[in-house]
């Protein structure tokens, strides 16, 4: 492969077509169904599908024999399926998603979720980096190979529209398309993070997730707090007590040993290396307020906390009026939404059941306590890397970043990877992405670091070529 030619081709396609496409894509508020229950009526999801479909169809003539179908199962979010013929009888799957997280508040002046803004190397706006670029990057990689006449295995591209809601529609599509997909020996996923923008980062694990709504009800209706406090136990206090069953409020450590796994020695070693490469950037990437510091100064522990240990976030609340309308009332009920990240190899649904029991048993004062489970996604742990993939990745990172590849678990979840890992235990995985420091997917000021998008695309081209060159087998 001519590395300079690859770089030139990919970079040109990004500048001429992909960045403008992503700007149009950012304008579409196609929130994932969990955040837009009326997504069908609103039509934004269809608009996003149409944008990607239209662009991809202009590329099909350059990929002889390639087909594209927008698959729509009754009552489910759509899925873009592209089949690009290749050499041999092996299959590579490339995965991404087109649904988005909701707006979030706190966008800087001049920026906004649905307003694409190009500033230097960065394209700001919701969904460019998470994960709109995936279909463009995947096809650009294949086009770059075609442009140099470099052979590759058959490739199938799957772009789903339900990822940010837990990918609950995706298993139906995978079943529906099973015969057409075949049995991939390499899975490429461009929906992950990177520790910095200076080298290629391979994701070695993803956390699982469980969570739901915890509600504590003490009264049929609110009453005068001067009358009732000291007699009626507060739903807020009971909720705090219940949360203490799960989490140590002093340290943030999740208490039950049932929610932990033994961390593999190789991953501890890689966490040490990653903390060495990244240094304080591990926590300085977060927009701490002045004077604030992380839960510990031990950098390796921070890496392991965010990749291999359970951690709790309270992501929403109900039963609490906004401050300006808060009267002196002992409120009848307090509810919170819990998001509990889980170790990669822990069984997500068992963990969810365990948490439900833990929170609901022996309710203090006989209060009405319920935990409505919403998510039970398992995590993912990479299989041992094949020597060819390790070498190809090392070379590709040097070629395009000028630095060695790095390996780290990610704290987030990509539910589909867990499903694929179970379905195709023999497959190799290239899970990487552009979600690096400050890129802030899910939060305000999300941006796509364009040079990293380009380089990741080049790496995908090299890996797909390397996969075929070594015989196409995992
Ligand atoms: Zn994503």
Note down, in words, how this protein is organized:
With 474 residues, the chain is α+β, with helices and mostly antiparallel strands. Helix content is 37%, strand content 20%. The chain has 15 helices and 18 strands. The protein has helices at 3-26, 39-42, 44-59, 128-147, 170-176, 178-181, 225-228, 235-246, 265-278, 281-284, 299-308, 348-360, 387-401, 415-423, 450-469, and strands at 67-71, 79-84, 91-97, 117-119, 122-124, 154-160, 186-189, 201-206, 208-217, 223-224, 311-318, 329-330, 333-342, 368-377, 380-381, 406-410, 428-431, 447-449. A hairpin with a 7-residue loop joins strand 1 and strand 2 (79-84). Helix 8 (235-246) packs across helix 12. Bound molecules: zinc ion. Zinc ion is lined by residues 97, 130-131, 163, 191.
Brief summary of the model shown:
The protein has 15 helices and 18 strands.
Helix content: 25-40%
Task: Report the total helices.
Answer: 15
Strand content: 15-25%
Net shape = globular
Q: What is the fourth-level CATH superfamily of the largest domain?
A: Zn peptidases
Topology:
Elements: H1 3-26, H2 39-42, H3 44-59, E1 67-71, E2 79-84, E3 91-97, E4 117-119, E5 122-124, H4 128-147, E6 154-160, H5 170-176, H6 178-181, E7 186-189, E8 201-206, E9 208-217, E10 223-224, H7 225-228, H8 235-246, H9 265-278, H10 281-284, H11 299-308, E11 311-318, E12 329-330, E13 333-342, H12 348-360, E14 368-377, E15 380-381, H13 387-401, E16 406-410, H14 415-423, E17 428-431, E18 447-449, H15 450-469
Parallel strand pairs: 3-6, 3-7, 7-17, 8-16
Antiparallel strand pairs: 1-2, 2-6, 4-5, 5-18, 8-15, 9-13, 9-14, 10-12, 11-13
Helix pairs in contact: 1-4, 1-15, 4-15, 8-12, 9-11, 13-15
The chain binds zinc ion.
